[in-house]
Amino acid sequence: MVTKNLNSEIKGQDNLELKSMSFFSSIIYFGIPAILMIIGFYVVMPGLIKRGLPPFNAFKKEENVFTLSNLKERFRLKHLNWKM
Known about the structure:
Layout lengths: L1 H10 L11 H28 L6 H5 L6 H7 L10
């Protein structure tokens, strides 16, 4: 296998094999975070909105105006492009 030979030359190891993740570990790594995100979006956020705390309330409390340039500056977003 070309990839195995290349990796072994780079790292100096001969036994480089990818092991598949067990079902239990995949549930831990992907299932639990997915469930937490679903709870956050469908339970916590509506509860906060019912109590009068919209998601961008913190942005408003900083006395910022909702413009694209202010959001970019606040969240430190740089120009995104498709080049790697």
